[in-house]
Amino acid sequence: MYLTIAETQKNLESLLDTINNDGAISDAEKAALVNAVTVFTKLSKLHVVDWSCGFEGNDNKVVPGSFSEVHTALFLSDVLDAEEFQLLMLSDEILTDPRALVTTPEKAKVFLKSLGFIKNPVLKDIDSDGSEKAAQ
Amino acid sequence: MDNNLTIKEVQDGLEELVHTLVDKKVAVSESARDALLSALTVISNLRTLQFVIWNACPADSDGKPIPGVPVDARAALFFSNDLAIDEFQRILESDEIEEDPRVILTTLEKATAFLNNFGFLRLNKE
C-alpha cells in the first residue's frame, strides 16, 4: 500500500465527503482529516529540481572539463512559480531565498522518502529500499 | 472546526477516526481506507522530523573559537527515526554532517519557511 501524494490527497477528499454528514464521526476527527488534506495539498505542490553548476572562466563560460556539482532544491510551487525559480537558479539569489531549500539530490531523496513517499511522483524511480530502480 | 492543528493533534485525530470507522462500521471504500493509513504514516513520520539549530563558531588551529569572529547560526532538518539524537550530536561536531544523507543543512529562516509551508504553523507548540 504505497500511494502517491496525489492519490492520497484525492482519496482523503473523497473520505471527507463521505464522513462529513455522518453523525458517528466527531468534529475533532473531521478536523484532523481536514488538516491532513491541507498538508497533502501543500505536499502535492512540493517540487524537487536538480541543476548543475560548472566553474566559469573570466568570460562567464563554463570551463571545459571543470567539475560540475549537482545541486537540488526543494520548493513549493504555490509560493514560488517555475519561471521565477529558473531565474533564481541562474543567480546566487537561490542560496539565500527562504522559499527554496538547497541541498543535494541524494539528501532530497532521503528526506522525501523519510516522509513516507516512496511513490512520490518526483521519486517514482526510487525503489522501496531507497535505491534507484533499474531501467526497464 | 479548528483548521490549524499541530502535527500531534492531526495524528491523534486520524487515529481516533480509524477506530471510529471500524467500531461504528462506517462504510468507506478501500481506496479511502488506504489513503487514511497513508496519511497516518506521513503524519507520524512528520512527528519525528527534528529541527536543530546550532552556532557554527569559526575556530583557530587549536580548535578554540576566534574572539571577535561572528558566529554563524545554522539549522538542520532530519528524521529522528533514522538518526538518533546522540548520533546526530556526534556528527554535528564533525565534518560528517556535511555529507550525511539524512541531514539537510540550511538556515533558520529557510527551515522555518519550509515547515510553515507544509501547513504546520503551530509546529513549535509541540
Q: What order do the SSEs of chain A take from the amino end to the carboxyl end, as H and E?
A: HHEEHEH
Radius of gyration computed on alpha carbons of chain B: 20 Å
Shape of chain B: elongated
Number of strands of chain B: 3
Spatial strand arrangement across the major sheet of chain B: 1-2-3
Q: What does the largest sheet of chain B look like?
A: 3 strands, antiparallel
- The run of helices and strands of chain B is HHEEHHEH
Helix content of chain B: 40-55%
Instruction: Flag low-confidence runs of chain A.
Output: 119-136
Helix content of chain A: 25-40%
State which percent range the strand residues of chain A make up: 15-25%
Approximate strand percentage of chain B: 15-25%
Number of H/I helices of chain B: 5
Q: Find the count of extended strands of chain A (DSSP E, 2+ residues).
A: 3
Number of helices of chain A: 4
Compute the average pLDDT of chain B.
77
Features:
heterodimer; A: 136 residues; alpha+beta; 3-stranded antiparallel beta sheet; 16% strand; B: 126 residues; 3 strands; 45% helix; disordered C terminus
Compact overview of the structure:
The complex is a heterodimer of chains A (136) and B (126). Chain A is α+β, with helices and mostly antiparallel strands and 136 residues long.
Architecture overview:
The complex is a heterodimer of chains A (136) and B (126). Chain A is α+β, with helices and mostly antiparallel strands. Helices cover 38% and strands 16% of the residues of chain A. Chain A is built from 4 helices and 3 strands; from the N terminus they run H-H-E-E-H-E-H. In chain A, strands 1-2-3 form a 3-stranded antiparallel beta sheet, covered by helices on one side. The longest helix of chain A is centred in the first third of the chain and has 17 residues. The C terminus of chain A is likely disordered. Chain B is of the alpha+beta class and 126 residues long. Helix content of chain B is 45%, strand content 16%. Chain B has 5 helices and 3 strands, in the order H-H-E-E-H-H-E-H. Chain B is elongated. At the A-B interface, helix 1, helix 2, strand 3 and helix 4 of A face helix 1, helix 2, strand 3 and helix 5 of B.
